[in-house]
């Protein structure tokens, strides 16, 4: 009998326990990798830039308000 080789998962281990579990999937659901390699929560800047890149951002009314940008700038990483 041949032993079946276990496939290596391409999904990252976010929890650090050495196994790929449902916890890892739930942890990754609301996060993304930044250009500098950090894993951060998806937020206002993520979705705003995603729409700009796709060309589906809406000009004028209905876009991100100045108040929301100011509030989110407080938590943005400083260079």
Give the key terms.
79 residues; 34% helix; two-stranded antiparallel ribbon; 3 helices; 2 strands; elongated; mainly alpha; 8% strand
- Average pLDDT metric: 78
**Alpha carbon gyration radius:** 19 Å
Shape: elongated
Q: Helicity range of the residues? A: 25-40%
* Strand proportion: 5-15%
Structural class: mainly alpha
Order of helices and strands: HEEHH
Tally of DSSP helical segments:
3
E-strand count: 2
Strand order of the largest sheet: 1-2
Uncertain regions spanning at least 5 consecutive residues:
none
In short:
The protein has 79 residues and is mainly alpha-helical. Helix content is 34%, strand content 8%.
Write a structural description:
By secondary structure, the protein is mainly alpha-helical. The chain has a domain at 13-56. The chain has helices at 22-29, 44-54, 66-73; strands at 31-33, 39-41. Strands 1-2 form a two-stranded antiparallel ribbon. A hairpin with a 5-residue loop joins strand 1 and strand 2 (39-41). It is elongated, with a radius of gyration of 19 Å.
